[in-house]
Amino acid sequence: MHAFANPARFLKLARPLTPWCLGLGLALIGYGIYAGFQSPPDAVQGETVRILYIHVPTAWLGMLGWMGIALTSLMLLVWRHPLAAVAARAIAVPGALFTAVCLISGSIWGRPTWGTWWQWDGRMTSMLLLLFLYLAYIALAGSESETSSTERVAAIFGLVGAVNLPVIHYSVVWWNTLHQPPSLSLQGSAIAWPILWPLLWTTPGFTLLFAGIVLMRMRTLIAENKKLARMRRLARA
Amino acid sequence: MNPWPFVFAAYGITGAATLALLTWSYAAMRRAEADVAREDAA
Amino acid sequence: MKAKHQRLVLVLLAIVAIGGAALLAMFALKDKAAYFYSPSDIARLKPAIGTPLRLGGLVADHSIKRDADGVTIHFIVTDGIANISVRYTGITPDLFREKAGVVAEGALTAPDQFSANTILAKHDEKYMPPGMAGQKPPMGKLQ
Description:
The complex is a heterotrimer of chains A (237), B (42) and C (143).
Chain A: H1 7-38, H2 52-79, H3 82-113, H4 122-142, H5 148-161, H6 164-174, E1 184-185, E2 188-189, H7 193-196, H8 199-236
Antiparallel strand pairs in A: 1-2
Helix pairs in contact in A: 1-8, 2-3, 2-5, 2-8, 3-4, 3-8, 4-5, 4-6
Chain B: H1 4-41
Chain C: H1 3-28, H2 39-45, E1 52-59, E2 65-66, E3 72-78, E4 83-89, E5 101-110, E6 113-122
Parallel strand pairs in C: 4-6
Antiparallel strand pairs in C: 1-3, 1-5, 2-3, 3-4, 5-6
């Protein structure tokens, strides 16, 4: 882990990895969506079930993103890992965007199936809270006064915000909600194979794409930090 | 209710948002790395 | 103890404390955060007649009856333990059908009578192609 404390060493790995993540991610998504339009409709919902193939990956990424922020925040607070703050900030914008896309695609899915665009049930409310946590985190970590104390405040916020993740996941189990309980768990799948399998392409596809975007954001932030450090040195000289 | 407008709207918004994020991240990275490379050369 | 380890212990303690507090809060919220009440919740909590609330459960088989006006329907919401009859005038979602999940917004008119102003369909977590009903999925869990 500390091998990557040095940005130069990280960049040596990140530069070739970026196009691979993006390319492979887009290819998997493309095939998954193609397959998702060949698969059969659902017996109850009909054709609207195809929204599954983008709704589930974006929901997963919204939550994976905050797991990443929490983990890198822990690394920053405990080990003072220099790349951790960069990684956490790099995750925030894509995490927020995919959370928003999850909410929007879910809303579009809700209208023809449930008969409503939005309801304040436990799942939808906790997912909307995740979006607001992302926006607050972006405001907090992105502020120009890039000092170690603002970094630490953002990291504490990142850790505390992770409390919402189990709430999102278990909201449909703990409480009565309009949203259905989880279809996929360690015990198996409640989705029949012909409908399930395109999801097994789009989910890793979106995850790789997300990784590629985070790498690009990290490279951007590292370059900007370098520029900033150079400007400060020049100002002092 | 005709399901297709809903399906296409969901895919359209997801695609547009994802492409916008990709383009923006790529452009920002290119700009930042080019700035650093120019200063390194100077 | 090294400073690094001290920080680790401190942060982990904080995580456990915050997580525990949140978990307790969630369980305390169990009834308040409920998006709807099941027929047996209503039998247990006895909400006042006329209070706006949401009733959720399954539409009982063979229970949907349509009035002569064509737009008023009556059906029974059940959770297998208690039943409540619902009256509703208006358009229902496509997925509203017998033996399927439903959420009705409205108020009780009697302890076991409910007048709804909105009907939402609630589907379960199972997805399968038409004609595959009853077939076993590859990974279990599906009944």
